[in-house]
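Fig. S4 source data, part A: sequence.
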Amino acid sequence: MFKQKLDFKEFLDLSKKNYSLKITNHAHEYPRLSDIVMDSNIQTNRIVSDIKLLRGASMNPKIIVTSDVDFALECQRCLASVNWNESLNIDCEIIDDDESSLSNETHINRITVNEEGISIAKIIEDEILSIIPMSIMHKSIELCENNDTLSLFLSINEKKESLDKKKRPFSELSKILKKDKK
C-alpha cells in the first residue's frame, strides 16, 4: 500500500477508515535518495514515518505525515560523511484531478491525483528532496577528515595573508607604535 500508486477513490476509502501506518524505510529503497546518501548503511540512512489518512474540512482525503530523517551525506568540503537529521511534516489535502479544474482556488497544501494515481512513498521522497541542503558541510573546517583538503585550504589562506602584507607596507608600523606607548 505504501509504495503502490493509489487513485483518488482509494485515498477516499482509506480516509473514511482513518487509516494509520507507522513505517521505517531506508534511503536505498528510494531511487533518487539512494544517489544522494553516502553509503547503504541501514542504521544511518533511514526514514521513520507516521502516516495518517483522514477526512479534511472539505470532506476530501487528507494526509498527515510526520517523518524523522537520518542520513549520512557527503561533505562538500572534504568528501567525508556528515550526519544529517531532520524532521519532516506533511499536512495536505488530496484532490481529484477532475475537481481541481472546476475550482479556481489556489491552495498550497493540496496534491492533485489523476487517474494514474500517486504513491505515499513518492510524496515523502519529494518532500525529503526539497529539504536536503544544496551543499552540506561539516560545521567547522576542523571537523573535516580529509587533511589534504584542509592543508590545501590553509596554504591558500597563508599565501593570501602574505600577499595582504605586501600590499600594506605600513601595517607593521601600527604594531611598533603600540609597543612604544607601553
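Fig. S4 source data, part B ends here. The two ends are 79 Å apart (CA to CA).
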